[in-house]
Task: inverse folding
């Protein structure tokens, strides 16, 4: 198979310890475009892949701020400009009355930002991935552990990367076609 028709190389490992060790060695060797697949969370795997920061917290904060501003502005506009009512001599901009709705919209917008931000950052929904072309990958959600090094990695070379993966003692190394 030619390197231009290759999505990457997929190495299968026996267990989570072997996958974690192989991932760390691949990261230390300079590979950055890689992903790991496991049937359950493996502690330290995200750090071994080089995922040290996510933008999700910033997205959630932005959603909360937008929600608070929308909630307060909506009530301010309706109380001061659209339908001003003098109730008991209070000013039109009686902001303590605005707190419950402002709080609720802050939480709502932050929660929606969390859900849609997580989906966007994870690239979901993804009905197809080239890994599905590898027959043994169907057991990734049951009892197999995989490390994928993508061909888009700057130091990827089909033969060199295959030799490197074979030094990590995997069960097998498979070509992943796009």
Result:
């Amino acid at each position: 198979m030619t390197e231009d028709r290759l999505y990457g190389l997929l190495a299968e490992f026996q267990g989570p310890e072997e996958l974690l060790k192989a991932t760390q060695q691949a990261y230390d060797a300079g590979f950055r475009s890689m992903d790991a697949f496991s049937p359950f969370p493996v502690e330290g795997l995200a750090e071994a892949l080089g995922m040290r920061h996510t933008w999700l917290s910033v997205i959630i904060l932005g959603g909360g701020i937008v929600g608070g501003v929308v909630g307060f502005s909506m009530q301010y506009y309706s109380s001061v400009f659209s339908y001003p009512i003098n109730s008991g001599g209070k000013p039109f901009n009686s902001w303590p009355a605005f707190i419950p709705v402002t709080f609720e919209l802050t939480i709502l917008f932050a929660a929606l930002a969390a859900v849609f931000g997580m989906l966007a950052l994870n690239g979901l929904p993804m009905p197809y991935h080239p890994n599905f072309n590898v027959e043994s990958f169907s057991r990734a959600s049951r009892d197999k552990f995989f490390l994928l090094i993508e061909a888009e990695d700057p130091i990827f070379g089909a033969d060199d990367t295959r030799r490197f993966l074979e030094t990590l003692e995997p069960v097998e190394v498979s070509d992943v076609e796009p």
